[in-house]
Amino acid sequence: MEEQAAKATGYPFTLPFARTLNLKLDDRVTVLVGENGSGKSTIVEALAELMGLPWDGGSGNEVADSERTGAPRLAHFMRPRVKNKPRHKYFFRAEALSDFARLLEAREKDPDFLGDPYALYGGKTIRARSHGEGVRALLQSHDRPGLYFFDEPEAALSPMAQVDFVKLINARVETDAFQFVIATHSPLIMTIDGAQLISLDGGALNPTKKEATAHWKTYAALFKKSPLDSARGER
Predict the structure, then answer these.
(1) Reduced to 3 states, what is the DSSP secondary structure of residue 30?
(2) What residues have CB less than 8 Å from 199, skipping those under 6 apart?
(3) Within the chain, which residues score under 50 in pLDDT?
């Protein structure tokens, strides 16, 4: 953190860990878990921005189109140390899919844009599909070795689509050419092979196991005894 962080007030320094954050990403897959407001997305956003990606999602090609804002972000107070700079990088935000779709459509109409903006995404606008199908097309299109950031990729994915996402990540981390940093609420995504899970619950970053997370326990309790079963028994 920069010295100015000690004097800064307001967001992101309303997050308990913000002034002392020191995160090492040595694993092929790092999964950040925690309740809403714990700071998962803030960290992933900051890491992506530090790697030269637009803070609101996309590749380096979208930096110029990134939303401008004067609000301070965590990356403004951080300094990265990178061992090996990846040739390919991407920051996926499910909430930004519509904005990205509009960007591709604008490129289609731009006479100065060379090539097919939909070439990587099935040859047609993302908005010609459901939200979940659009997310899957985007995820599958980025298959070049490199560094990938995901902010809640499960937001538009069905359980089976989440399983497919896990299989996709598992297949790519079989080599050391890929690295992933993922913020999620999904117990399914927590099952990625060899993932280092970090919990932000409690205001600090602590290594954890999937079975110890509140998300996993909630789902386990639900499937052990469904609320619907209890309701039926009362009739």
Answers:
(1) strand
(2) 33, 34, 205, 206, 207, 208, 212, 213
(3) 1-2, 232, 234-235
